[in-house]
Amino acid sequence: MFSFLKGSKSKSPQAVSLAAIESDWHCHILPGIDDGSQNEEQSLEMLHYYVQMGIKKIVATPHVRADFYKNTHETITAACQKVQKLIQSHNLPLVLEASAEYYADENFFELITHGQLLPIENQYILFELPMQNASLWGVKLAEMLQKKGYTPLLAHPERYRYWHNKPKEWSLWKNNGVCFQLNLLSLTGFYGAAERRAAEQLLEADYIDAVGTDAHGLRHLQKLSELTQNPLFENIQQLPLLNRLG
């Protein structure tokens, strides 16, 4: 069924090595449950490319939102089992963990209240804020997570343009115990020059605790080949990231 993949690999860009980073803490590889991989063929393409990049562990983080992606523990676990079968049947040297990227909304509030979360490494909860406008939900939800014993992990802070040129906003969140997860794609300019610069500023301020690809498909993983063009990529590989496998 997937025999065509062998022929397609040679046409892919040279995969960047992420062996020093070891694991991807933000990706959309689970098939058919959000705007990431749409089927098992696409998931398998991504899995093969992860191996080429030297990644050893993948944390699948499908969107969980009250409006568009009403994923639950059950839908995520079921999709994760499909990918786990692909890993096993193709003898890929990868470990897979199921988590989520929670959107700061009323649904997230309910999930925290009722203890229905899928933490990374049993500790970290990845969540995202609105892209267009700042939300008061974020601060409240982060506090709730901490009271429950979790560590809030904010997804791609470099992408919130309303924080650009406002370093005090970043420091406020960091000072309140929120960890930051950087999208590696931001360093390639994939989201825009402003996001790239914000990512570089966060790295220079030593604010980054974890990194992820935020890959929604093979094209995003291939785009990472451009990471070598950013001098800060070498710095990332030396950081004591939470991604490191213990």
From TrEMBL:
The keyword Glycoprotein does not apply. Keywords: Hydrolase. Gene3D superfamilies: Metal-dependent hydrolases. GO terms for molecular function: manganese ion binding; protein tyrosine phosphatase activity. It holds the Pfam family CpsB_CapC. Belongs to the metallo-dependent hydrolases superfamily. CpsB/CapC family. This is protein-tyrosine-phosphatase. It comes from Runella rosea.
